[in-house]
């Protein structure tokens, strides 16, 4: 694993920024007794590869099964792409630093700076893509629960694709802008304030969705298939809250690391927390592994598609 974040979010030569994490780590040895926690490279690359393959499997399953060509699964595919980008970012970052240690690349060359900016953009794109994909899933579940009878008129496939196009266009533009102007405090603060907003969103989601669902359950249950639809919709809401909880647990430590490295690099307590940078980076990739497991566990249709894909592959292998 790397000993620094090759990210413009925490280092930018000649501008109002903090020193690189490598210097901070050296300095922290004198002000804290916390030893740096290192994740073996074998473990790191194994977790990254597993995350990429699992999310790729989700994409293939949705593409192959026409029954999954629905807005909800399109939003899930968007989240899977974001997870893949997160794992790919950490993998490329680690390869980049290994090449620097071997002498094939320099830390301050023009090509390396451009490569660094590209990786920063990929990291931000992954984070923003995950946030807005989760928001899209939340909006879809909200409409499903409270506007069940009008859902197919409100959330059409075409409308879902337009929403995803807007989301990824915005995320791509924002990731480039944030990577280019990451040395500005005004850029870092809005970038990291998204997490408290997500916590607030989870709280509102629980209160609003689960309390009002009781009154809607009584109305929908009076219809012939109302009870079945209500159970399905509430299951989707629970799945969403699981996604949000896992996302915050996996991403929040790394974003907190960026904040501490930006605003209090020489504080002994901050330096102690930054000693677990390797673990925080691995958590991002663990999110990419956990999400597909949630897909498979909570969605019978997707789970059935996985089984068919594996059985078909096994049959072809035996043949």
Automatic annotation (TrEMBL):
Cross-referenced InterPro entries: ACTH_rcpt (IPR001168), GPCR_Rhodpsn (IPR000276), GPCR_Rhodpsn_7TM (IPR017452), Melcrt_ACTH_rcpt (IPR001671)
SUPFAM superfamilies for this protein: Family A G protein-coupled receptor-like
Transmembrane segments: 43-63, 70-89, 123-149, 161-182, 188-213, 234-256, 276-297
Assigned GO CC terms: plasma membrane
Membrane topology classification: Multi-pass membrane protein
Subcellular location: Cell membrane
Location of the G-protein coupled receptors family 1 profile domain: 54-295
GO MF entry, a single one: corticotropin receptor activity
Keyword Transmembrane helix: yes
Pfam family, one: 7tm_1
Gene3D superfamilies: Rhodopsin 7-helix transmembrane proteins
Alphabetical keyword list: Cell membrane, Disulfide bond, G-protein coupled receptor, Glycoprotein, Lipoprotein, Membrane, Palmitate, Receptor, Transducer, Transmembrane, Transmembrane helix, Ubl conjugation
Lineage top rank: taxon: Eukaryota
Family statement drawn from the similarity comment of this UniProt entry: Belongs to the G-protein coupled receptor 1 family.
UniProt xrefs under PANTHER family: G-PROTEIN COUPLED RECEPTOR
Summary of the function given for this chain in its UniProt record: Hormone receptor primarily expressed in adrenal cortex that plays a key role in regulating adrenocortical function. Upon corticotropin (ACTH) binding, facilitates the release of adrenal glucocorticoids, including cortisol and corticosterone. In addition, MC2R is required for fetal and neonatal adrenal gland development. Mechanistically, activates adenylate cyclase (cAMP), the MAPK cascade as well as the cAMP-dependent protein kinase A pathway leading to steroidogenic factor 1/NR5A1-mediated transcriptional activation.
Record protein name field: Adrenocorticotropic hormone receptor
């Amino acid at each position: 694993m790397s000993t620094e974040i090759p990210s413009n979010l925490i280092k930018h030569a000649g501008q109002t920024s903090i020193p690189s994490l490598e210097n901070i780590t050296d300095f922290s040895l004198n002000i804290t007794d916390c030893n740096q926690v290192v994740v073996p490279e074998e473990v790191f690359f194994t977790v990254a590869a597993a995350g990429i393959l699992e999310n790729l499997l989700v994409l293939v399953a949705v593409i192959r099964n026409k029954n999954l060509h629905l807005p909800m699964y399109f939003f899930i595919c968007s989240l899977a792409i974001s997870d893949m980008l997160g794992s790919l970012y950490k993998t490329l970052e680690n390869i980049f630093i290994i090449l620097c240690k071997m002498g094939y690349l320099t830390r301050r060359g023009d090509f390396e700076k451009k490569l660094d900016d590209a990786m920063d953009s990929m990291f931000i794109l992954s984070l923003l893509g995950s946030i807005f994909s989760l928001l899209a899933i939340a909006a879809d579940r909200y409409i499903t629960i409270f506007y069940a009878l009008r859902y197919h008129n409100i959330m059409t496939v075409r409308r879902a694709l337009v929403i995803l196009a807007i989301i990824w266009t915005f995320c791509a533009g924002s990731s480039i802008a944030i990577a280019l102007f990451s040395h500005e405090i005004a850029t870092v603060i809005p970038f990291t304030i998204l997490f408290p907003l997500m916590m607030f969103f989870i709280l509102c989601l629980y209160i609003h969705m689960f309390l009002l669902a009781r009154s809607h359950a009584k109305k929908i249950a009076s219809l012939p298939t109302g009870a079945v639809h209500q159970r399905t919709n509430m299951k989707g809401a629970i799945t969403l809250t699981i996604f949000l909880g896992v996302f915050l647990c996996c991403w929040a430590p790394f974003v907190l690391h960026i904040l501490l490295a930006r605003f209090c690099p020489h504080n002994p307590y901050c330096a102690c927390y930054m000693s677990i940078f390797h673990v925080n980076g691995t958590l991002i990739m663990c999110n990419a592994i956990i999400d597909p497991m949630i897909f498979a566990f909570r969605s019978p249709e997707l789970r059935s598609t996985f089984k068919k894909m594996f059985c078909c592959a096994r049959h072809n292998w035996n043949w």
